[in-house]
Write a structure and sequence with these properties.
Structural class: alpha/beta
Shape: flat
Helix content: 25-40%
Largest sheet: 4 strands, mixed
């Protein structure tokens, strides 16, 4: 009964060749050796003998740590799957008589799909007598392509497909990079203009400070008016002092 086929190489005692071309663990070419000798060399190094090219004559075998080799190969395959992009074709459907609001909403979704790296199939659905006017659908598809020109390129030009008209858009990395660079440049120019306008205006002068108000001075009360008819004494008229030694008046002899 035949053994099941596997993609894994034969190792150690599973190798069937009588002699092999031996490669050392460091990649050095050891030469053609009988299989028992090659196995002994691998066991002395506590490593495995792995048949890496079974179609060669004689087969090429390498000395290595097969468990470590399998682990590293699995990690590389895992990283490769992470980096690979799974391209999905999205679809967006329009009507020939679509309104401007619905058109803008659907086109924004198309932009979102393209920004995520997906292709987009744009479909115009005709009904009844609308089939007699395919130019209306062509006009809408051209409008969509113009609105997303910064993100995508037309991969499949508009064409009729039964009662529909289709167009396929694919992400354009060059256009996206150019658009991102232009937006960044515009933002830098706007920031520079704002700084320039602020420098030209200069600092705003401080508002004038009000001078301190002096406290009100007390108004002296008016002097009281004279209530008598006696004029005041003249300041230049000297009043003779009273004589303290003045003699008393003589008595009248008739009174005695």
């Amino acid at each position: 009964m035949a053994a099941p086929h596997t993609d894994e190489p034969r190792i150690n005692d599973r190798i069937r060749a009588r002699e092999v071309r031996l490669v050392g663990a460091d990649g050095a070419q050891i030469g053609i050796r009988p299989l028992p000798e090659a196995l002994a060399i691998a066991r002395d190094l506590d490593l495995d003998l792995v048949e890496v090219a079974d179609k060669a004559n004689p087969p090429v075998c390498r000395i290595m740590d097969y468990g470590k080799y399998k682990y590293e190969a699995a990690q590389k395959a895992k990283e490769s799957r992470k980096k690979s992009t799974n391209v999905v074709i999205k679809e967006m459907k329009y009507r020939p008589k679509i309104g401007s609001g619905d058109f803008d909403t659907k086109t924004k979704k198309v932009e979102k799909f393209l920004g995520e790296g997906h292709k987009v199939k744009v479909t115009i659905m005709f009904r009844g007598r609308e089939m007699a006017h395919p130019e209306l659908g062509k006009k809408i598809l051209d409008h969509v392509a113009d609105d997303v020109v910064h993100l995508a390129r037309v991969e499949v030009v508009p064409k009729l497909d039964g009662r529909n008209m289709i167009m396929v858009l694919a992400p354009d990395k060059r256009a996206q990079a150019a658009h991102a660079a232009m937006v960044k440049e515009q933002e830098a120019e706007a920031a520079h203009a704002a700084v320039s306008n602020g420098s030209a205006a200069g600092p705003q002068p401080a508002p004038p400070t009000a001078a301190p108000t002096a406290p009100p001075t007390a108004t002296p009360a008016p002097a009281p008016a004279w209530t008598t008819d006696v004029p005041p004494a003249d300041a230049n008229t000297e009043t003779p002092p009273a004589d303290a030694t003045a003699e008393a008046p003589e008595a009248d002899p008739a009174a005695s």
